[in-house]
Write a sequence for this structure.
DNA sequence: TTCAATGCAAATATTTTGCAATTCG
DNA sequence: CGAATTGCAAAATATTTGCATTGAA
């Protein structure tokens, strides 16, 4: 998972941001997670390794990571303040309602479909969000225990 | 648009809720709107006709309308605390980024597609969200003025 | 050495809760 | 009448901002 970490730190530097301990701590947690994380969760986890970390720096770092397209916001029934690492290209999210684990999937002709909707409804389409919720295999297995 | 109003009031009554002036004011605004509305916007608009209305009653009424499936929450880049009237069956939302106007569209084989994703990824699919953003024809026209 | 970045505390913004007064049925 | 609902004020949450201090380059 953490192939992302050095890459993200690199990108931050390239965009004129300094590489601080606080940023590294946040990047490490988010880049290395296979689950959706809320700012406060990132704070709690990152703080284990870097106790000086402040919650505000978590918010500020997440903001930059989102701005640079490394992470994206996830919308869930329980709230919309969680993030996941972005994947190259345009992909869609599949989320486990129980544990928050996530995966990406591709929607072949969806782009075309949305363009057609735009023509039909006379909207100039700009973007689309798609998320699918369910229970991942591990959580299904656990439920049967 | 306000074919909904009496229908919603009816449904509230059928579910054991009382028909109060506060509820009527909120229902009238949300049922009659062709745009996405935030709780505070509902409050401001509804208050014009019913000045005694409190913001808390708006929240509480919206909660009930959502619970009974008459309205649904909309997720947007700027926030996720807006609501629209629900449409029968499962439809997807097309939203104008500029004015907040909304329309529904149908996704023919999408259900099947999501089931397939579930099999492939071994997820037990429960629900999906899809929203498309763009600029509606009226706002496009205005931009050229 | 310089200025971006930090962490704290305080300020905002949003939503929820407690409660006495009101009102629907 | 009695219970559900209201609106206010206060509390709880979540996020942002101001600012003196720290630290990366």
């Amino acid at each position: 998972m953490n192939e992302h970490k050095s890459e993200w730190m690199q990108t931050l530097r390239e965009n004129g941001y300094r590489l601080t301990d606080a940023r590294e701590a946040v990047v490490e947690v988010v880049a290395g997670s296979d689950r959706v994380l809320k700012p406060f969760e990132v704070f709690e986890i990152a703080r284990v390794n870097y106790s000086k970390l402040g919650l505000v720096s978590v918010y500020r770092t997440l903001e930059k990571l989102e701005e640079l397209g490394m992470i994206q916001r996830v919308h869930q029934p329980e709230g919309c303040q969680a993030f996941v690492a972005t994947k190259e290209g345009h992909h869609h999210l599949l989320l486990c309602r129980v544990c928050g684990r996530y995966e990406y999937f591709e929607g072949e002709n969806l782009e075309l479909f949305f363009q057609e909707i735009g023509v039909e409804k006379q909207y100039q389409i700009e973007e689309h969000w798609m998320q699918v919720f369910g229970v991942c295999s591990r959580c299904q297995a656990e439920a049967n225990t």
Remarks:
- DSSP finds six helices and five strands in chain B.
- Chain B touches chain A through 32 residues (CB under 8 Å).
- Residues 16-18, 20-23, 52-57, 60 of chain B lie near DNA strand D (CB under 10 Å from a C1').
